Amino acid sequence: MIRINLLPQKKRAERTEGSQLWLVALLVLLLLEIVGLVVFHGFKREELATQKHKNDEIQAQIDHAKRAVKNQAEVKQKLAQLRAREDAISKLQSARTGPTAMMLELARILTPGRGPSVSPDKLAQLKRNNPLAVYNPNWDARRLWLTRFVEEHRQVRLEGRARDGEDVSDLARRMNLSSYFYDVKLLPARQVHDAESGLELVNFQLEAKVRY
């Protein structure tokens, strides 16, 4: 009878199966690691794309703000130019019409029954506060006449003759109340004898600043 010992072969088979299982497990772990890396890489790519999109939006806002600031500077410059042009035109118009209006105001002041351009409310308030500062509405402007008028750099100098000092004072009061004159100053006057009329008159001088 022939005997065959199978025990060592069985152990070798078990060892082979164990090696195969370990290799399969290793392959599974490696595969899981690869899948994990792929998933992690995809997540990071998506996160990077999201951050890049945010950065692009921020950069677009910065570019828009830069353009807006640039346009604002241009607009301000154009507005400044327009204002300078308007001021120049206004000064030219004022220089052309201002002296005429000032002379018309002086003519009103020296016209009997007329007076300076002043608000009625301001005149009423002045009467209550300081009656001596109000002009005499009954003053006869023919008691005073001008012999010289000079205007330079919006400052005028008047010279003339009057019947007495009160006539000169009333002229000064009227000019002070006018919206065209201010800082009116009476200069020293002197009394003279007019040979033609035989009257004693006052030679006066007056300075004032003009507003127009």
Verbal overview:
The protein has helices at about 5-110, 120-130, 165-175; strands at about 145-150, 155-160, 180-195, 200-210. The chain is an alpha+beta fold and about 210 residues long. The protein has 2 domains: about 10-100; about 110-210, Gyrase A, domain 2 (2-Layer Sandwich), CATH 3.30.1360. A 4-stranded antiparallel sheet has the order 1-2-4-3, with helices on one face. A hairpin with a 6-residue loop joins strand 3 (about 180-195) and strand 4. The longest helix is centred in the N-terminal third of the chain and has 103 residues, at about 5-110. The N and C termini lie far apart (about 150 Å). The mean pLDDT is about 80.
Topology as a string of helices (H) and strands (E): HHEEHEE
Return Rg in Å.
52 Å
Q: Could you tell me the number of beta strands?
A: 4
Major pleated sheet: 4 strands, antiparallel
| CATH-defined fold name of the largest domain | Gyrase A, domain 2
Q: What do the pLDDT scores average to? A: 80
**Outline type:** rod-shaped
Strand order of the largest sheet: 1-2-4-3
Give a summary of the structure in a few sentences.
This protein has about 210 residues and is α+β, with helices and mostly antiparallel strands. The chain has 3 helices and 4 strands, in the order ααββαββ.
Task: Write a concise keyword list for the protein shown above.
Gyrase A, domain 2, four-stranded antiparallel β-sheet, 212 residues, alpha+beta
Topology:
Blueprint: H1 7-109, H2 120-129, E1 144-152, E2 155-162, H3 165-177, E3 181-193, E4 200-210
Antiparallel strand pairs: 1-2, 2-4, 3-4
